[in-house]
């Protein structure tokens, strides 16, 4: 597939938005085709996979990728523009101040360490107290609220029912970072071997799996892949 202005425009859109659900991504793809595709072909959803594959071939050498992820808290698929370098947080130093980046790290840490990887919003705002020290003043809670909104728009976090979750972008972009720093806390889905934060838990054992992985597995088998007991949790 030739690399065209459609690819360039879609990459720019993904980079600007950070995270797009599948419907948003296809709507954007259709709009870009209408503007840049001179073939007058009707855009198809399956064409988008080929466009993203061609883009990834170009940007992989820059440690960048457009990843497709099924995000269990919303049961939706997202396209996420991610940086695969070891310290993606540090790349934001020209955008956010040192106290703001420290707040991001603290929030990432506490969400990772919490039992279900969620925090009440009031708890998130109170984490600003941890941003003081080393010559830094505590981050004002009003600024913390603004940051959470900005980071949620980019897909780093998600708020549902006044509860904060790791967003689809954090789940993908910070997988290496979280495994390196909290390897004794984070676990992997035993079906796809990818780090898992949100999923579905077996009723007979502590195993947690991606819902999408379990749906595929149950097409062939009926037991838990970990404890081998009959799977009884509805999907």
Automatic annotation (TrEMBL):
Pfam families for this protein: SMC_Nse1, zf-RING-like
Record flagged with keyword Transferase: yes
Single GO biological process annotation from the record: double-strand break repair via homologous recombination
Catalytic activity: S-ubiquitinyl-[E2 ubiquitin-conjugating enzyme]-L-cysteine + [acceptor protein]-L-lysine = [E2 ubiquitin-conjugating enzyme]-L-cysteine + N(6)-ubiquitinyl-[acceptor protein]-L-lysine
Domain of life: Eukaryota
Major localisation: nucleus
Name listed for the protein in its UniProt record: Non-structural maintenance of chromosomes element 1 homolog
Organism: Anopheles christyi
């Amino acid at each position: 597939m030739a690399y065209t202005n459609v690819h360039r425009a879609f990459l720019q859109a993904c980079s600007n938005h950070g995270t797009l659900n599948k419907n948003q991504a296809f709507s954007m793809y259709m709009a870009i085709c209408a503007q840049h595709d001179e073939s007058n072909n009707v855009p198809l959803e399956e064409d988008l996979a080929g466009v993203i594959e061609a883009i990834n071939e170009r940007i992989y050498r820059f440690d960048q990728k457009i990843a497709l992820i099924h995000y269990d808290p919303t049961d939706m698929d997202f396209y996420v523009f991610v940086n695969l370098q070891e310290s993606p947080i540090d790349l934001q130093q020209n955008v956010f101040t040192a106290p703001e980046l420290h707040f991001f790290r603290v929030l990432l840490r506490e969400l990772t360490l919490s039992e279900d990887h969620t925090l009440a919003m009031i708890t998130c705002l109170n984490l600003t107290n941890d941003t003081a020290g080393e010559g830094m003043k505590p981050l004002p809670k009003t600024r913390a609220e603004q940051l959470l909104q900005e980071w949620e728009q980019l897909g780093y976090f998600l708020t549902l029912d006044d509860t904060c979750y790791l967003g689809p972008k954090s789940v993908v972009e910070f997988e290496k970072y979280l495994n390196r720093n909290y390897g004794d806390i984070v676990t992997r889905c035993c079906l796809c071997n990818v780090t898992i934060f949100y999923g579905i838990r077996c009723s007979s054992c502590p195993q947690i799996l991606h819902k999408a992985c379990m749906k595929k597995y149950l097409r062939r088998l009926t037991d838990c892949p970990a404890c081998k007991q009959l799977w009884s949790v509805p999907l």
